[in-house]
Design a protein that fits this description.
homodimer; 95 residues; alpha+beta; Arc Repressor Mutant, subunit A; three-stranded antiparallel beta sheet; 15% strand; DNA-binding
DNA sequence: TAAGTATTTAACTATCAACTTAACTACACG
DNA sequence: CGTGTAGTTAAGTTGATAGTTAAATACTTA
């Protein structure tokens, strides 16, 4: 791994190394969801979720589209979906 | 993923989400190395490397053995080796 | 045992990350 | 228009993280 790759990968990992962000990525593995739909599955404020989504948007991991007054979110990078799959297989009992 | 798995995985990812720690893991992919040998490959102080190694030891990712006055380090968890391989394949041009 | 090498630890400073609250924007619909 | 709902943003507080320096430990060898 060259230096820039190490740095970029560290940034990417940092942006997913938080329980709330990991859980959001799990939820988005199969389908696009609005902020409110994500929120229903988690125990924190909407502001907090919005901030965590923003961290991942800034990293290019999550893309959003607005429809009416809902914002629908999806995983923007297929490699992150693959990475999540691998991590589930390696670190979870039932993936 | 259940809640405890999400939390543990977040801790694990956090402990590798730093350029220095990622680079150390790269170096240790194939062989065990002393702190000094690791240091030669990197641009930071020995104290700093020791601190980063300690973060990964506390997480159970790295195991160390002492021989004479060298401390040899290796990746203690085969799953982390697998994870590194996957990340290289996904995010590096030449893995 | 004294001096040298390898590594760790402690103390400190600076920077960053997370959460809360409240204010704000955007859109829908009566 | 005004009200309600969805989501974002800003400000402030608190706690965590990173790096530097210096001191301490552990071992080796003369």
């Amino acid at each position: 791994m060259i230096e820039s790759e190490v740095n970029n990968l560290a940034l990417l990992l940092k942006s997913i190394s938080h329980p709330i962000r990991l859980q959001i990525l799990c939820l988005l593995q199969t389908s696009e969801l609005s902020v409110g739909e994500i929120r229903k599955e988690m125990q924190t404020s909407g502001a907090n979720i919005s901030q965590h989504l923003n961290i991942m948007r800034n990293q290019g991991i999550i893309a959003s589209r607005k429809e009416a007054n809902f914002v629908y979110n999806r995983i923007a990078d297929q490699r992150v979906i693959e990475l999540m799959k691998t991590m589930k297989q390696l670190f979870c009992s039932i993936s």
